[in-house]
Amino acid sequence: SMVSDGSGLEDGGSSAPERVLFPPTFSVSEIKNKQRRHFMFLRWKQQQRKEKLAAKKKRRKEREALGDKAPPKAVPKTIENQRVYDETTVDPNDEEIAFDEATDEFAPYFNRQTVPKILITTSDRPRGRTVRFCEQLSTVIPNSHVYYRRGLALKRIIPQCIARDFTDLIVINEDRKVPNGLVLSHLPDGPTAHFRMSSVRLRKEIKRTGKEPTEHVPEVILNNFTTRLGHSVGRMLASLFPHDPQFIGRQVATFHNQRDYIFFRFHRYIFKSEKKVGIQELGPRFTLKLRSLQKGTFDSKFGEYEWIHKRREMDTSRRKFHL
Questions:
Q1: Considering the domain boundaries, does residue 18 fall inside one?
Q2: How far is Cα 20 from Cα 73, in angstroms, rounded to an integer?
Q3: What is the spatial distance between Cα 5 and Cα 239, in angstroms, rounded to a whole number?
Q4: Any idea what the Cα angle at residue 278 is, between residues 276 and 280, rounded to 5°?
Q5: Strand partners, 169
Q6: Residue 258 included in any domain
Q7: From start to end residue, where is composition biased (Low complexity) (predicted)?
Q8: What is the pLDDT of residues 254-294, one digit of tens each?
Q9: 141 part of a folded domain
Q10: Residue 161 lies in domain
């Protein structure tokens, strides 16, 4: 005999159908009993999964039957490929862009006239995790020196950096002992970028890390910096590393921009055979989000800003990106 529980489902031993038949307007949330509701929801999810797999199997069989005549696979829609067009997107062959690159603040570096010399410093009296992060960052960026601040203002540090021929200043800020911000100032004339930092992982915290990095100059990869602003930020990050990578070290520093988040990874690649290449992550890793870009060196009071991230005005669409 079939027993109905009032929820539009029939349950009763072996004769009950496998397929869960809900009435068209029925919602699982209408079931008052919590345990019953949870059970019905799991059955419904299971049914959805079965239907999805069956449809996938059917499509695969159709493609195999058609062979070469099968239509091309549909490209899934993602936030990135549905991106709202940005009028400042850079065309690499544009003469105006080429002129800007030849005359901007980073031109001497790309022309190999200056060698980067970086000062890495911290917020006042840093704690253990920030200290370790700075030490590891200095092994990634060649010719970089770590200095721990003791109450000295940034405006006083900058003239001293310029006098000692430093080309860039990196400041790692922290909150509750966790690194949460990065200020990058190009010396002597700027610009200055302020990033929010998140997802910091030190070498110890990354699974299957390789041995410590060597002193070889790494290659630098910049991905998806397509707009004028992205181009400026990408050139700024690239100019931290010497422009002549030593390929014998097989080390790669990657700045990958995705949805305006800049993911940093540091790898070593290993040739397993003529065709196979393996990669080891060396660490550290972190994620940056641009908050502002300022003309000139760091000046929080009177500095002239080229770009500031204003969430309420700018983040009107999830598909609108600025880098």
A1: no
A2: 32
A3: 70
A4: 170
A5: 119, 185
A6: yes
A7: 1-15
A8: 999 999 999 999 999 998 888 899 999 998 999 999 999 99
A9: yes
A10: 91-315
Tell me the pTM: 0.78
Q: Which residues pair with 293 in a beta bridge?
A: 193, 307
Query: Can you list the residues of the chain whose pLDDT is less than 50?
Result: 1-12
Which letter, b or e, does each residue of 114-135 get, where b requires 16 or more Cβ atoms within 10 Å of its Cβ? eebbbbbbbbeebeeebbbbbe
Whether 249 contacts 216, CB under 8 Å:
yes
Mark 158-172 as b/e (b = at least 16 C-beta within 10 Å): beebeeeebbbbbbb
Residue 40: its H or E element: helix 34-66
- Number of structural domains in the chain: 1
Phi first, then psi, for residue 233 (nearest 5°) are -65, -40
Helices (H) and strands (E) in the chain, counts: 7, 13
* CATH, residue 252: 3.40.50.10480
In angstroms, how far is CA 128 from the centroid of its own chain? Answer: 25
Q: Backbone phi, then psi, for 94, in 5-degree steps?
A: -70, 130
Tokens of 18: 């496998």
Residue 79 inside a domain? The answer is no
Residues linked to residue 119 through DSSP beta bridges, in sequence order: 145, 169
